[in-house]
Design brief:
alpha/beta; Rossmann fold; three-stranded parallel β-sheet; three-stranded mixed β-sheet; 9 helices
Length: 262
Amino acid sequence: MHFAAYAYVGESVEHPLLYYRNNFAGTAALLRAVVDYGCIPVVFSSSCATYGVPECVPITEDHPQRPINPYGQSKLFVERMLADLNVAYGLSWIALRYFNAAGADPDGQIGEAHDPETHLIPLVLASARTGATVRIFGGDYETPDGTCIRDYIHVGDIAEAHVRALAHLRGGGESCALNLANERGYSVKEVIAAAETVGGRSIRSEIAPRRAGDPPILIGDASRARALLGWVPARSNLEVQIQDAWNWKLSERCFGTLWAWA
């Protein structure tokens, strides 16, 4: 299971060679070793960023792949490399195209703690704690409230999909790409409102300029993963995902000390 990659869209626009060297060339070196070892099955962490700006939603796996940032390009290059290695060497593979990963382990054992943190839900929860203002990148998109819409998928559901994908390949199943999505989108403002409900306090926000490389709407169709893997998300509710992330943020494992609430 290959998870390693740089994954900041904005950074990829500013430093594309960094992303092509690490995400693509680094994966090529890894797959060279896999082929030399004997073509063990590969489950690859891909991304909905390979689609670019969608022509229609929800997005199926057959949607054209036209990434609008180097991060998405780097993931698409690896998908194409996997397909070529399947033809040349019989390498079996599944590329799981995540939509927006969210949440944390419900038992509080593991969760997000990036530095720098760029993901919306952890930033919103940190703002709930500190009273800082959340920056919303773009308020003039063609969406109901003007902010970007994303499809959030719980990390526990993503992990379950990986286990099922590997079992599928080891059982002789076909190589392919699959979406991991909940098939419902939430705007940035809706995420903030849900976080206010979970945290029990208001969260201040302000509109900032758009970020380069951000599509306005990304919602996935996961029917193929359901059919092929028998995969059904168990924690699809946005407030459940935020609650799990909130519990993780409150834990000693995340910050080394418990947050004090007035």
